[in-house]
Amino acid sequence: MDHFLYRDGILHAEDVAIPDIAAAVGTPFYVYSTATLERHYRLFEEALAPLPHLVCFAVKSNGNLAVLKTLARLGAGMDVVSGGEYLRARAAGVPGDRIVFSGVGKTRAEMRQALEGGIRQFNVESEPELLALSEVAAGLGVTAPIAIRVNPDVDARTHEKIATGKKENKFGIPIARARDVYAEASRLPGIEVVGIDVHIGSQLTELEPFEQAYTKVAELTRALRDDGHRISRLDLGGGLGIPYERSNSAPPLPVEYGAVIKRTVGDLGCEIEIEPGRLISGNAGLLVASVIYLKHGEGRDFLILDAAMNDLVRPSMYGAHHDIVPVIEPAPAAERRPYDIVGPVCETGDTFAKDRPLPPVAAGDLVAFRSAGAYGAVMASEYNARPLVPEVLVAGDQFAVIRARPTFEEMLNRDSIPSWL
Ligand code: LLP
Hints:
Blueprint: E1 6-7, E2 10-13, E3 16-17, H1 18-25, E4 29-33, H2 34-48, E5 53-58, H3 65-72, E6 77-80, H4 83-91, E7 99-101, H5 108-117, E8 121-124, H6 127-140, E9 144-151, E10 173-174, H7 178-187, E11 191-197, H8 208-226, E12 233-235, H9 254-265, E13 271-274, H10 278-281, E14 285-296, E15 301-305, H11 314-318, E16 324-326, E17 337-342, E18 351-358, E19 366-369, E20 391-395, E21 398-403, H12 408-413
Parallel strand pairs: 4-20, 5-6, 5-13, 6-7, 7-8, 8-9, 9-10, 9-11, 11-12, 12-13, 15-17
Antiparallel strand pairs: 1-2, 2-3, 4-14, 14-15, 14-19, 16-19, 17-18, 20-21
Helix pairs in contact: 2-9, 5-6, 8-9
The structure holds ligand LLP.
Ligand LLP binds near residues 58 and 276.
């Protein structure tokens, strides 16, 4: 169910009218729906039941403390990839034993931080990392629970910048080498092997690549058990895609994804972990912007917004599509005309969409980018000295600013002038 609907001709987030938030916060801003976050989390819970499991939300997709707390309240675990994300998860009330730590470049300081603060498992991506982790853990007099991330050499059939499971990608250990590396791990004093980890990419719109990868993980589980390892957990990563274009795409549902998991690894007696980000937070958020100008160019019309590539980088970075809709519902018969929808940043790359058909729009109108709750605010920057875009959370008829727009004074005060100037 969609919690961003027109009511009486005005786009709402749950029971809150978007123009009311715009009046209170100013544009641009992100707005998230609690009901959507909760619903999507529960879809995964239901998809994996009755297998023993933990749904670990990928903090990288949306790390706002209020978003994390919304999910933590439901019992969610978290997948983190930096010391900063680890601290965010802890600050949102997530216990260490529900946090998995992924990523190819964990530093010793980050390892120590997680070992001291409490951690469910490290997903180890290389032999040097394994050795470093063993040393850090042994130095603290503890053992680090680990899964080794294997690279199954599967084509995720997604955008090349977010595919991770092919042998040419920087992620994981080639699955053919896994037995050797597990043997090495079991000999290290600071390491306790608990499972296997795999993640093949993001925005996957087919189940087949998951099926291939998880089948390989099931084979590896049996082989490693034959070698004497205790494999009690399988972390199957994230990556299930969402329908960015409502009109023409329908990626598989969590329940269908759950069926693949049950079919491939369900009989191994392992606890299943998954790390979904986008499917939980993506369609739980809008980016709302105002039209600054309508500009008639040579043979094309530009819609210039007050949001830019620094606020939502996905279109410039990946050529990603986001549906863009007017906040005031157009008449059903309204004529649609193509616009190039752009931001104010001084780069041609600051283009959200080309030749996008839109009903009549005017300067001052509000528009909303759909599916902007994942990899939106977290990837924002202050390029062109534009303040970081604020975030708002809606729950029913309430809304609250969950990250305020910084003032220019705050932005200036972060710099300092050296004594010789
Ligand atoms: N686990 C690991 C180890 C990951 O690397 C990722 C995403 C996830 C889980 C969550 O994947 P999801 O369920 O959200 O697809 N910035 C890009 C997406 C980068 C994804 C990176 N890793 C975008 O805007 O499309």
